[in-house]
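Entry 14. Ran structure prediction on the chain below.
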Amino acid sequence: MLMKKTFTSFLLVLFSFLMTANTVGAQPVKAIQSADKDKINGAVLGMLSQWDSQAYKNALDLLTQLMKYDMKALGHDAYKRMQTMKAIIDGTPNYRLLFGADILTGHFTVSAEGDRWVKVSDADDLQFTFNDKDGKPCVVTFTTSGATKTISLPVDQEDGEDSEEDMQNSAKYLALFGLTIDNIKTLMSGVTRMDMVVPEHTQLIMTQGSTTLLNGTVDVDLSSLKDGESVDALVLSMNAIFAKSSGTGTFELSLKDTGYKPVMGANIDFTAKSDGLPILSLKVSVPGTWKGLDLQTLDFGLESISVNLDVMGQVQVKGGIASIRGFLVAMLSADDSDEESFKAGLKEVNQMLDLKLYYDGSSTAAGWIMLQPYYDEEDEEWAAAPVICFASDNSVYPVGEFFSAENFPDVLMGVATIVSELQGLSSVFEQTVEERVQGVKAVNGQTVTATEWYTLDGKRTTGAAKGLKIMRMSDGTVRKVMVK
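Output, structure tokens:
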């Protein structure tokens, strides 16, 4: 029988093409010299060159500025509204809690003292108006519109340990809004159902002076939502348009018809655009209705897999598997202890695997993926590894060897730089949140002390014991410290 690692190898095939930049960094191998490598490298570098970190930073700066002001007025207002939304479930001692966008509404501006948000009017949306550090007027508006649908989800009151941990981790964010763990415990006491009001349209707009730094919209197919443990949801569209830091042009990220819906199945339709021109698009379609894991029939309810990837209009990956069940049956029919049987089974698998590489929109394949048999000396069995084959020179390379750091060093550096920038910007935002938490504690005159000590494996201990310890603080937060 074809071993599990062969199926894992196939997943690596898909991952290698769908996330080319992320597959860079394999084990050290000799650098490959080929026109195909140069073509792929040029397309990915062209895409990475369109990234505008300053545009992202400008939008995040506005959120960072917004978080610097005391938000207790918003928190207390929202908490009061939520208390009124708690209702008894007929015939039971339990409650249900209704939560929707109208919990967080109103127009706010910065107080005359410049230290807190003050509500200036009731409204159907949520809006913050303030000046940035250069004195430019800024507005952040969160709006919902269209029809709504209420879905009911269960709240597990018996899962005390996990929910307690979750609340402890959320303590610092609650403090920003002038709320405590006890407030949430009181609100959630006896609640066994959470009713979520989902709007058809949601929009986030961030402006700085006359520039719209970010215009984000989300449109949801309300018919795809249902009650239950999990939620089937189909996002009709999700757009985020950033103003470029140059002052002209935009960078756009968009999703459409993405999510899961019975019969339609699972779908991804993602596009990144620079000044309106696509630089990356990815479409994945897995039609069918998920039935669960049935290893006897190998029928999961999902019919096929279709992949269409385009990078800068220069490199395309198209194909997939016409029959998921047929593919799995063929894989499991091969005997990894018999060479002839294994190779025959793998030949059938490769006939069902249709994943090809194209250049510049051509209909002629420049390369393709297949699974190649080899004998695993360590496990003493036959196995398969994904390889990429090129038509230009009939060359064949293991996927991990081709997409290596030696072959794509500039791509590796480009991805690392972007990741570093995103992490750095996120750290600035997190630091601002932490500073606000400490500011709230100082204003309230709180003295935060350690109330409980634990070892890393969760055993209760004392602060006197040396080593790395976990402290539960009096304000509900958890900290990791080294006791010397």
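The radius of gyration is 27 Å. Will compare against last week's run tomorrow.
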